[in-house]
Amino acid sequence: MLRKLIAVVVIAVVAVAGFGCKKTPAKTPTKTPAEAPAKTPAESAPQKIEVKSQAEYDAKAKKDITSENMQAELDKVEKEIQQESKGL
Fold it and tell me: Domain for residue 72, yes or no?
């Protein structure tokens, strides 16, 4: 008797879990192309992100950092690192 009761309960739980958990996605109204707002060329075009290479950074550093301003540049970089580490 107890085995039958346990079997019925297990089957009922599996059936409820199997059929009760299926959610149907909510239907959202779709806009036709005529109703959709027009995008400007700037919005529809993918944005390009310029990424500098290591050689470009090295060339800029050689140009910007001299023996006269070396300590000031080092202090500036150290200050930036400290500010970034405080934000973490």
Answer: yes
